[in-house]
Amino acid sequence: MALNKQLGAQDLVAQLRDGMTIGIGGWGPRRKPMALVREILRSDLKDLTIVTYGGPEVGMLCAAGKVRKLVFGFVSLDAIPLEPYFRRAREAGGMDICELDEGMLQWGLRAAAMRLPFLPTRVGLASDVHARYPDFKTISSPYADGETLLAMPALHLDVALLHVDQCDRLGNSRILGPDPYFDDLFARAAKRCYVSCEQLHERLDLGEHGSTDAARANSFERYLVTGVVHAPGGAHPTSCAPHYGWDMKHLKQYCASAEQENGWQAYANDYLAGGESDYQARVGGAAHIGSLPVTAI
């Protein structure tokens, strides 16, 4: 495995293939690998299965016709509860859907991360899960209680895409925000994990100054990381605490485009033409992104 794992976003996307199952880390409008998603949007990739706790990346990939199947716990922009392009795709039909309880999605990723075929859980019982997804099975506890449990199948990923605060060229990473979400499970459930980062270092010292905080911020091991992309501002318009908050003005503009005829094409023409530097220039530049206030939640 290469010691220097740095590569460009275009080089990363060139390694992806049609029909892949791609897990996308982050949570709703928080710490999404949007620079990598934008590069997928500029590519010819199609027929993707996306697994995620979804935010704007889901709507954009749906609007661009990239998604064949979606496995999700929710798709929301929080302050804007329902992602409009995701809603449009659901209402239009034609997309294979697996809507899970958030706990079931976590358990499926954890099973894959542990190289187990399933994990038992009470989550999903007494719900419509069996009616909608008859392939999901139940099992009986082999112990005296004999309890019936749902056997949540492993959610295996071909690729995981994550965005973190810091990386080095070896693949070490740190998440400095208040919540790592389930990025570690995405990394462990995937055959290959690519990470974009706000800051790229030659070498991160995970035990610097004897601090346990530095090690605690490293939520998955470097051997899991296939490639590292330096993408400052790369989570915009989602947040990346403590560096910047979400860009609600931009998200509102994006959502408003869904109400307009050919709105997605207009949004794509405005913000996807060129590369990432062109995108950031059009949204106000690095100074604007860095000035976005981090909210309390």
Describe the structure.
The protein has 297 residues and is an alpha/beta fold. The chain is built from twelve helices and eleven strands. It has helices spanning 9-14, 34-41, 56-63, 84-92, 102-113, 129-132, 183-189, 212-216, 248-257, 263-271, 276-282, 285-291, and strands at 21-24, 48-54, 67-75, 96-99, 118-121, 137-140, 148-153, 157-168, 173-174, 190-201, 225-230. Helix 3 (56-63) crosses helix 4 (84-92) and helix 5 (102-113) packs across helix 7 (183-189). The longest helix has 12 residues, at 102-113. The chain is globular and about 60 Å long. 45% of the residues are buried.
What's the SSE blueprint?
Blueprint: H1 9-14, E1 21-24, H2 34-41, E2 48-54, H3 56-63, E3 67-75, H4 84-92, E4 96-99, H5 102-113, E5 118-121, H6 129-132, E6 137-140, E7 148-153, E8 157-168, E9 173-174, H7 183-189, E10 190-201, H8 212-216, E11 225-230, H9 248-257, H10 263-271, H11 276-282, H12 285-291
Parallel strand pairs: 1-2, 1-8, 2-3, 3-4, 8-10, 10-11
Antiparallel strand pairs: 5-7, 6-7, 8-9
Helix pairs in contact: 3-4, 5-7
Radius of gyration: 19 Å
Which structural class do you get from the secondary structure elements? alpha/beta
Number of helices: 12
Kindly report how far apart the N and C termini lie: 38 Å
Poorly predicted segments: none
Average of the residue pLDDT scores: 95
Binned, the helix content reads 25-40%
Largest sheet: 8 strands, mixed
The amount of beta strand, in percent, is 15-25%
Query: What string, H for helix and E for strand, traces the elements in order?
Result: HEHEHEHEHEHEEEEHEHEHHHH
Shape: globular
The number of strands is 11
